[in-house]
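Molecular record:
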Amino acid sequence: MNKSTNEANPLKFTNFIKIMKLTLFFLFFSILLSQAANTFSQETEFTLHLKSATIKEVCKEMEKSSNYRFIFEGNANRAANKKVDLSANSQNIEEILDELLSGTDLSYRVLDNQVVVYRDREKREVKGVNRSVTTQTAQQQKKQITGRVVDAQGIPVIGANILEKGTSNGTVTDMDGYFSLSVGDNVVLHISYIGYITQEVAVGNRTNINVQLEEDTQRLEEVIVLGYGLATKRKDLSASVGIVADPESLAMRPVTSTQSMLQGQIPGVTVQANGGSPTSTPNIVIRGQGSQNGDGVLWVVDGVPGAPINSLADIESIVVLKDAASAAIYGAQSGAGGVIIVTTKKGQKGVSVSYDGLMGVRTATNVVQSLNAEQQIKMRQLSSANSGVGLDAGWDVNLNPYIGVTRTNWIDEIFRSALYHRHNVVLNSGTDTFKNRVGFSASKDDGVLVGTYNKSMGINYRGDLQINKWVKITEDFRFGQSDDRGVDTDSGYSGAIISAIYMPQSADKHYYTGSGFGGVTTEDPEYIAKYGSNYASIHGDVINPLRILTADDRYNRNNSFFTTTGMEIGNIVTGLKFNSKFSFYTNSGFDKNFSHMITEVGKPNLSNSLNYSTYRSQGWKTENTLTFDRTFDKHTVGALLSTTSDYYSQRGFSATGSTFADESKNLQYFNFAEAWNKPSDYMTGPDANVALISRISYSFDDRYFMTASWRRDYAGRLPSSNNYGDFPAITAAWKISNEAFFNKELISLLKVRGSFGRVGNLGSIGYNYKSQTLSSTSWNNQSTQYGFESDAGYTGTFYYNSKALNPKLTWETSEQLDAGLDIDMLASRLSISFDFYNKRTYNLIQSQSSGWPASIGVSPMLVNLGEIMNRGFEAQFGWKDRIGKEWSYFLSANAAYNKNWVADIGVTTGDGSKGVWTGGGAYRQVPYIYQTKEGGPLNQFYMIKYLGIFQSDAEAQAYTKDGVMIQPNAKAGDLKFEDYNGDGKIDALDRQYVGNATPDWTYAFSGGFSWKDLTLSLMLQGVQGAQAAYMAKYSLLGDVEGNFNRSVDILDAWSPTNTDSKIPRLSRSDPNGNFTTPSTWYLEDASYLRFKNITVTYDLTRMMRKCSHFLDRGSSLSVYFSGENLFTITPYSGMDPETGGWDALKYPVSRVLSLGVKLTY
């Protein structure tokens, strides 16, 4: 029998090797090309024969046959019109220019491939003087100058340009910042380096000169990319934009996703951890949730929506478009949730290799603990006494001594200290015209629960080819592969963590069955004879937690490929550019789960099975953009016209096989299954969209700024009669500080801004909304369900579409008004920003639940009904300063407040009154706990109020309505509930709206300092006003009927000697409904303040350069330590408060301590 290939990796190993070979070939080819280009630049020779040509014309001839570009400064243009005769055979550029410019007052300077020609007033013609005498005189006048150039922290500036002003005589600083130059008397040195303010120093009579360069804040002023070619300086922003201050430093943190890296960085951007599983990704909400179905956040990477990010170390900048005005240009792609723009690093000139890697250890904190064997027996005894029943024989240690010995702490068995490591290698090569960057990344994140992990690898290539001064070609290639293995922890019956609580600690994990799990095997005659059914009874339905985590052969794999080819044509006319991009992507993967046969006593699995599913999706995107940007005196204008289109489809397959005679891993294929179900497949899409985009921008005199955009989207998934939407936006700003009347002594920047924009959201209707399948039903003369009658005895089949389509269905739409204020003061050491916004989302997409007759036979159609509001404000403060020459520090804080409410529920009941949205939150025997009404926030907790614990039977009996006990089964130690509607009983009519999970406030504090080569930074992050339903208390503290173990916290249950407890009395049953009632006893304050991160970096570059020549110019070496989630202050009693509002023992967020190294050579 041939082996099935269903589990075959879609990316075979041989294909992977081919990709590696091609990538390495391309890289080394690029390096060789880079070196060849440098050599050409240095050794280009010219053969020219020109008569009566101007100096300019000669230079243009040299441009045609080389990479050189000539720049004529100031009034050099006039002198360059002088006509000359030139004859040169295989001469380099210096030889030609020396001859060409002789007899003029022009000089030149060669900077890489640029030649600057300038007028030298000190240059004079010398006639009739012997050249040797002139040379001797010049030598007598020159002297040797030495010195050193350092930055503001005293670190040597390597490669700084030292030039004798007005001449081409110059040098550069060495690896320690020192220089030596021979100059004449009374000269001025021109000292410059990229990123620093150029200085001119008069030499005078000095022979030693030390210079300290200051950062050029004008040159380094940050340029923000806002999408579709629009870039502006931070100080000129008119939209509400959040900017991540230092992504490179954030990438040192031991986080696994860009979402995690954003937490606490930007006010108004709420990042909610979705548990601590290595397979989970945090959720991001920007300025409040505006939809029942969630607001999708659009990620735009290097200008391409949806492009992947393989490595955090590749990120150069992150910008969050928070208001609808800045996001509107992305239209319905952005949803109502905002846009996050990521720019990755690109190739640079020169050749370098860099490595960035870290290794850390994860540990779980504040983990729940279960009762040991002795404590569990005590709990059973007390609960039996409280319930007035005898102790079961299985729990009598005299009859069953096995249960009295603690053998296994199951929590310790399932949790572990886990390793996390990631590695990034970047190979860079580049010339002035061709730049390449190849990145290799790999990581593995072992979860703190045994058997869980996520491992990934990726390859990135970015190439930029400047064909000529007009045309540029770019290529971006990304491949990624991930394997992961997660686990269910939220289930109230079989979650891995709750199973470890349930399993008695008297059970020994080493009493294996044939498959290796369980307490004792049913075939073990010694234990069966000794303990009989008593042993089995204490295990009941408990599933061995190690079996959940490790027994099944289970994992997922995903392969992704994304490539973008772009072309830019610049200066069609001055300021006009054309840009075109085409992206293609494909994702494929599979999910395998082989469940073994396990014959344990507690919860056997007497059959085996294989579940396998696979999928493949692909799509493409195109974008063609024409931009214009030009400055006329004090006026700067910009314009954009663009078209975009995209396509997406996905297909999948799944099957199940069972009864495998041999469970060996190499035989886990459908071929070897004795039975298997009919396979099923599906198709998502195809989905196609087209958009037209326009934008204009204008600014006057660096004081007044305005940008307006309009986008029309055509969506393939909407009905053809209503498949387009218009999304306009406008922003404006006034820089008051640049007005003539404003005094800038204290405040250097004062700017007010405002915006309005509209975006759309189709995320809730899915790609297959318009697809139809046929359903059928039988009918006869007795059936009038569908309004048909037939002749007696006639039977027929009725076919109908599976769903009703709404021809008027359109986008959910979000409109947002924003006003902001930006202030820089005290020489820009203090920066302050405020934002106020009002966000309205209307035309919500939901089912028409009211007025839909059941006789139609299909589910209610989707309609646009309802409206949700979000209103809030944001504040951000920053301070940075220096203390002396060696110390610098910074402090920052941000906070955001948001109020969310449903302005129009959109649904009505049968009597015409406003309806509600009911949903979710049920746990075991506890019914739903969420409901939303008009005027309240989304997903409100809808629960019965808990008023405390009855301290005596008399108090319970005195809680009456018209002389009748409201809680007739209550006794001392039971929970007391509020009879909200006053009908004398506790039931569903006593539910109230008691809060919601969304925090009122989110905030963060950051700070740090640098001293010489040492840098330290830290961050605190928190929320205020959040609530969470800790539903796991049902399982941890509930009635002790059955054979499940409980949390150690149950020992603090109410008793006559422990009346301050908030845990109900121990009981074998729950006649009062302490745990089955959906009450606020489960609801807790989930506010928290977390010490999120501390990072310490030591730059070894200067030290290594002093003792070794290994680190030459441009090389660097640093090491760093980073700690994540160090501790949390919270009133929440669960493992972690960051649960999203509902906690059934979610996979806990873990603490990580890591060490890393960064090397560039």
Remarks:
- The mean pLDDT is 84.
- The first strand starts at residue 46 and ends at 54.
- Residues 44-124 form a domain with the Phage tail protein beta-alpha-beta fold fold (CATH 3.55.50.30).
